[in-house]
Amino acid sequence: MRLSAMVFLLLALAPVAVRAQPAVSVDRIDITERGIFRTHLGKLEKNGEVTTGSLRIVGPGKLVKSTTTIPGRLHARFGFKFKVSGSPAGAVVTLDCVTRFPPQGITHPKTGQVHHEDRFKATVPVGKVGYAGYFVGRPWEIVPGTWTFELWYEGRKLAEQQFTMLAP
To answer: What pLDDT score was predicted for residue 29?
Structure first.
């Protein structure tokens, strides 16, 4: 059974050796592209903290259309690319990723539970480009309204991007 998932891409992430790292400073997160993407769907990882029950790691994505208006349709892939600025370059940082759904939330058909947001952690190297987004894999995930993506580092919200999903 294929489950849809919140997607998170880490481009140019090199293997990280376990060793002491110098103090890390994150100054800001810049959004570099936003809209509808073409991505290669990758590994599905179980995650009980998100609405669909799993996260999907995606391959390098290509921006198809720069927009904040998303058609409400199955298989829509939308989100944004971002770059973490700080020091030292290449240091791996853990971001708290939050997706806030429209006010009515997403209702999981098997449990009947209404979800208003998803939260998970992801790692990205300072100075590299990452991607945060959503893949609509089931009809019940098509929820018209404002979707808000947030990236947090150590309790500070450093990036926010809103999208408006249209009714099917």
So the answer is: 98
Instruction: Using pLDDT thresholds of 50, 70 and 90, give the confidence band for residue 59.
Output: low
Name, in order, each residue with C-beta under 8 angstroms of 97's C-beta and a sequence gap of 6 or more.
6, 8, 119, 120, 121, 122, 132, 149, 150, 151, 152
In three-state secondary structure terms, 37 is strand
Domain limits, the chain? 6-11+27-165
CATH of domain 6-11+27-165: 2.60.40.2390
Q: Which of 20, 21, 157 is nearest to 90 (CA)?
A: 21
Phi, psi of 167, deg, nearest 5: -70, 150
Q: How far apart are CA 131 and CA 9, in angstroms?
A: 5
For tokens 């904040």, name the residue: 68
Predicted structure pTM score: 0.82
SS3 140: helix
Residue 82: closest CA among 19, 130, 139:
130
Nearest to 152, CA basis, from 121, 118, 115: 121
